[in-house]
Write a structure and sequence with these properties.
There is one protein chain. The chain is globular, with a radius of gyration of 20 Å. A hairpin with a 6-residue loop joins strand 5 and strand 6 (108-113). It has two domains: 6-113, Archaeosine Trna-guanine Transglycosylase, Chain: A, domain 4, CATH 2.30.130; 124-213, no CATH class. With 219 residues, it is α+β, with helices and mostly antiparallel strands. The protein has five helices and six strands, in the order ββαββββαααα.
Length: 219
Amino acid sequence: MAEDTQFLRLFPLQSVVLFPGMELPLVVFEPRYRQLTQECLARGEPFGVLLLKEGREAGAQGTLPYEVGTTAHIDRVETLADGRLHVRATGQQRFRVVSYDHSHPYLAAQVRFLPQDESASATTALVGQVKDASVRHVQALAALRGGYLRDVALPDVATVLSFLVPLLLQGQRTNQQRLLEMNSVMDRLNEELAMLQESYTHLKDEVERRWAQGTFSRN
């Protein structure tokens, strides 16, 4: 195996795309994933999170995860009364699967960590545009629920912002995965800006429609 690859235990998830800096709470109940958790703790190693392309079970016939994911550092583990593990972890570093390893009870792989291409650094203007679009998006979501938000705190660091914005795009796992796979911060922010603007247009139209029909909940 090439020297620039590393062994990584994998935790495929059906509905989560993990980004660097993102908090990940998990309730682990399957024996193989309890073993994975204990091995990671004992060795001080992260595990890798991959989004499943389809289905509910990695390794099932015709079902494979995407090949780009993010490592998760275990911050805390609590053993529940019924033997389940309550795990809190944080996303760290993006990786790409080079080859899968099926010799363990859980799925594992040799992976290569992905660099963040900063050669075309995002401009201050672009960061500002994405922040403004993010605020409008969040405020429109709040309005759709009959609420109001005055301030939305967002980071000024381009890379951090680019990994935060996908979390605002709820229910768009395929798009979130595509954003995760981008190496260029500028490309990611430009794509996010377009997605936020499109989403805001739909949200704004829905808010106006509900106000016109008087269907907002006052709770």
